[in-house]
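PROTEIN DATA CARD
Card holder: Enoyl-[acyl-carrier-protein] reductase FabL
Chain length: 249
Origin: Peribacillus saganii
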Amino acid sequence: MTQKVALVTGSSRGIGRETAIRLASEGYDLVINYARSKTAAMEVAAEIEALGRKVLTVKANVGDVSKIKTLFEQIEEHFGRLDVFVNNAASGVLRPAMELEESHWEWTMNINSKAFLFCAQEASRLMEKNGGGKMVSISSLGSIRYLENYTSVGVSKAALEALTRYLAVELSPKNICVNAVSGGAIDTDALKHFPNREELLTDAARETPAGRMVSIEDMVNAVVFLISEEASMIRGQTLIVDGGRSLLM
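Structure generated from the sequence above:
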């Protein structure tokens, strides 16, 4: 992977953090993106540098298109290329549909789905210069199943998965593969904001056919597979990593 560069949005914590560190261990130089916690982002950057890889850390709220453009301008100036884009940054308001306000809807859709489109436009331009690349988005089962209080996030993830299919077709002539990974309940910092967190964790522990909950490592393994050459004929797909839980829902 010498000289290859990967961008992971929202990579200061959780799945994004572990994905960035894993890609560095695989030989990629990294672009770490964060919106709030500079301290956490710099800790990730330090771990990547300790692995002998180069790293660029950029603060940018990817729900803002102007910030997206600035992010990619810095990537082009610093590295001059991009080979892998992991669309991981996510946010959302957890309320019943009848309690959602316009600001809640716009915030969630901007970060979880609009960001993917406009990041993909910028990423594809850089990837095309070096013969292609790989894009993988992080989704969730709420895109296809009802989850309590998850309306805005679930709809935004459904849009992300639809966009994955459209981009896979339109970017294939540029040798850019586009896919998504959808995970079951994972005990991350993000899950702490769910009002029914304990119920979700109990259900996942008891009802998952695989006999255990999904881990962050399971998600990272799926991302690494989809950006590999072995997965080059997988395009526009959403790979569900849930230990079989959704088969029983």
